[in-house]
Backbone:
């Protein structure tokens, strides 16, 4: 047994951290709320190869494992980058047998969006090619996108109506389910990055800010809140790595692991973001401070692709079906 | 990253399974539905079980050969633990000796002490306990008041310990005492090995809120301990105790093992009980089962990460405290889910009490509930562990500790 990242993955994380820190930031997420562009943007992500990490090498991708993508997604989440690598990972699964479309995903020449029924779809803003499950078949086509007031503009949410859909893969329910599980893993990985950063920001402030003659981080009321958030992040990291590993190496475990990771991510990020605001006091809920940007991400992500209650029910069902025996 | 056994690990696991099968007739096995046997009742059988396992090379797997161990890896140690659980062999009776006292004797004992104690500890010829907490010093351990006063070749000990697990069956204990009250509280402590059968040692079992008696009060009245039974230098007791505490946090939950009832037990209970619930209660119970399973899995895999780090040469650091915190939280969720599934049976178990009859063992879930408040206190309270993580992992400023540098007899005890 060896439950740790290898050196290549650690190097990839460090490289991704440099890229995302240069290209995206909470400041960019704030600007996007006032109709600025989402950073780093689809083409920049394609150019550095991140959209194609799990796309086959024969079609211009990296041919990597989902764990390789999850490691990068954590770094994207830490700076609230967009578009989401969730869409890239999910589309890569759906397009595994479609070389031309997979190549277009990897090089950014097409902008994909994956649509779940009538729910607002992730990365719909600016998308030109839509994938959906209709009557059990995987379809692809154009679409019209209605945007509203985004809680988190970096998520590119929109309600999509498909135009001219054509069947890409008939009887694709199993393929669709696997792609959705993969999406859950990558969403949890992005949330891991966001939650981890929210805790870091809270800890740094708790060391600086003084009240009643002491740094506020010395008070148990503040210290223990931050510790609980941090412990949650460490547990989430384990679930993200396990679920990504399962996607690659133990597909039977993926449904359980992916649902567990998503459910835990939703609650962990929410707690981390709310703790970050609470520790900052009045400053924490001003527009100028970054805390609300992590909080916005938390409030959106907890509902994307099913909330914690839905995934707890999935886990319970799998446990009953003998997934743990 | 790979969760599968390496070829070496797979071969080792097969060998362990063979050994357990070969000795099956000589080992205690838990009955179906009974997961937490009473150590006192089964003392002799449990001692015999540990001796059989030790002779088969399955105890002290990661201990050095010079101390009677197998010089194996922590991964091998974990494999033995998994296979013992799979074979439904209960926790070794000397788990405190193996997890905490033994490593402390190894780190701070003399060669003569190693010779005298370690091999017998591994075979449960001697059972050990850890005499740290006192009525007025639980979390604030360094405020303890039990004294040891030098008298020729001996030290004379007076005072009281409490909440001492296994003291009622123990042959030896590691005993933390105050030897220099004129020094600040951490500087005036000294550690000894104490013979639990020595004149002046009185053990009185305490009954826990779940009804069982796993721990005790221990009184010391002019108990004489030879200076050669000292562990470390006089005044160095705190440093010695830190070795014990560090090992304790790894032993208790730090490896991702379930505290209390396992998530697999919950899964079996859920499969049996969910179909019979009303639709409304079923929704709530499923939520509770799902949430508990997620927490338990998160804790299990975090334990695997810690095990990986340690087996790659890392030392168990303050991060291990996070494992105990998360393990306690997961255990509460597992217990809560079990109780929701049982409903009325969880508060009024009929015919499923201490005899543990019935696969669902409602009485077992009752006792488990009553044990959980203890988990959140023993081996470091949740609050103290949060301080440790906050200060040593996150680097937050420390709690004010006004008595830290003051002589103990000049007000520390106020």
Residues:
């Amino acid at each position: 047994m060896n439950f740790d990242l290898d050196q290549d993955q650690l190097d990839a994380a460090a490289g991704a951290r440099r890229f995302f820190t240069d290209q995206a930031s909470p400041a960019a997420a704030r600007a996007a709320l006032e109709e600025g562009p989402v950073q780093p943007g689809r083409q920049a992500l394609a150019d550095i190869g991140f959209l194609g990490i799990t796309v086959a090498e024969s079609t211009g991708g990296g041919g990597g494992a989902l764990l390789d993508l999850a490691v990068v997604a954590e770094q994207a989440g830490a700076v609230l980058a967009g578009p989401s690598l969730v869409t890239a990972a999910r589309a890569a699964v759906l397009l595994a047998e479609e070389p031309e479309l997979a190549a277009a995903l990897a090089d950014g020449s097409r902008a994909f969006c994956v649509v779940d029924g009538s729910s607002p779809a992730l990365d719909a803003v600016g998308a030109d090619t839509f994938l959906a499950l209709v009557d059990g078949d995987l379809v692809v086509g154009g679409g019209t996108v209605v945007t509203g007031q985004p809680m988190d503009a970096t998520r590119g949410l929109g309600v999509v109506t498909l135009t001219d859909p054509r069947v890409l893969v008939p009887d694709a329910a199993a393929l669709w389910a696997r792609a959705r599980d993969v999406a859950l893993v990558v969403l949890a990985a992005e949330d891991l990055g966001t939650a981890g950063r929210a805790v870091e920001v809270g800890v740094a402030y708790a060391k600086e800010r003084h009240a009643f003659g002491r740094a506020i981080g010395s008070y148990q009321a503040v210290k223990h809140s931050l510790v609980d958030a941090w412990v949650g992040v460490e547990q989430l990291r384990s679930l993200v790595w396990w679920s990504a590993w399962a996607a690659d190496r133990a597909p039977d475990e993926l449904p359980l692991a992916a649902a567990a990771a998503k459910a835990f991510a939703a609650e962990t990020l929410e707690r981390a973001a709310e703790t970050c605001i609470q520790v900052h006091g009045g400053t924490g809920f001003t527009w100028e401070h970054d805390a609300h940007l992590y909080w916005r991400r938390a409030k959106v992500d907890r509902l994307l692709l099913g909330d914690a209650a839905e995934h707890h029910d999935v886990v319970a069902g799998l446990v009953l079906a003998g997934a743990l025996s | 990253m790979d969760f599968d056994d390496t070829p070496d690990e797979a071969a080792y696991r097969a060998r362990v399974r063979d050994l357990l099968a070969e000795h099956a007739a000589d080992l205690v096995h838990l009955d179906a539905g009974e997961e937490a046997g009473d150590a006192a009742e089964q003392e002799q059988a449990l001692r015999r079980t540990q001796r059989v396992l030790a002779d088969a090379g399955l105890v002290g797997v990661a201990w050095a050969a010079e101390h009677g161990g197998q010089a194996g890896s922590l991964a091998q140690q974990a494999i033995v633990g998994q296979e013992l659980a799979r074979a439904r062999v209960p926790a070794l009776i000397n788990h405190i000796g193996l997890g905490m006292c033994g490593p402390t004797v190894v780190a701070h004992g003399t060669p003569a002490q190693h010779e005298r104690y370690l091999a017998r500890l591994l075979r449960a010829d001697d059972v050990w306990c850890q005499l740290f907490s006192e009525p007025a010093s639980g979390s604030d351990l360094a405020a303890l008041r039990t004294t040891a006063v030098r008298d020729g070749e001996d030290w004379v000990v007076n005072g009281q310990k409490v909440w001492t697990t296994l003291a009622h069956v123990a042959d030896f204990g590691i005993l933390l005492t105050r030897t220099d009250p004129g020094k600040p509280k951490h500087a005036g402590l000294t550690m000894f090995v104490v013979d639990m059968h020595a004149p002046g040692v009185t053990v009185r079992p305490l009954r826990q809120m779940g009804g069982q008696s796993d721990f005790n009060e221990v009184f010391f009245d002019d108990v004489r301990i030879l200076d050669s039974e000292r562990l470390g230098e006089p005044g160095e007791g705190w440093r010695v105790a830190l070795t014990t505490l560090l090992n304790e946090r790894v032993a208790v939950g730090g490896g991702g093992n379930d505290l209390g009832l396992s998530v697999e037990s919950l899964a079996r209970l859920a499969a049996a009980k969910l179909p019979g619930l009303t639709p409304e209660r079923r929704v709530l119970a499923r939520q509770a089962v799902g949430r508990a399973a997620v927490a338990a899995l998160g804790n299990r895999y975090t334990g695997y990460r810690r095990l990986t780090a340690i087996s790659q040469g890392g030392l168990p650091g303050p991060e291990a405290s996070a494992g105990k915190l998360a393990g306690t939280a997961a255990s509460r969720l597992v217990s809560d889910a079990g109780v929701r599934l049982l409903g009325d049976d969880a508060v009024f178990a009929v015919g499923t009490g201490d005899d543990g009859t019935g696969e669902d063992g409602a009485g077992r879930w009752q006792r488990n509930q009553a044990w959980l408040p203890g988990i959140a206190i023993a081996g470091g309270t949740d609050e103290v562990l949060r301080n440790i993580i906050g200060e040593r992992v996150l680097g937050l400023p420390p709690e004010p500790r006004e008595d830290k540098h003051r002589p103990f007899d000049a007000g520390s005890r106020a």
